[in-house]
Amino acid sequence: MLHWDGWNGNIKSRGQKLIDLLDKLRKIAITGPESTGKSMLAEQLATHYKTAWVPEFAREYLERNGFSYKEEDVLAIARGQLESEQQVMSKAAGFLFCDTEFIVTKIWSDVKYKRCHQWILNQIETHRYDLYLLCDIDLPWEYDPLREHPEMRKELFELYCREITSRNFPFVIIRGFDSERLNNAITLIDDYFKIK
Question: What is the pTM of this model?
Answer without folding.
Answer: 0.85
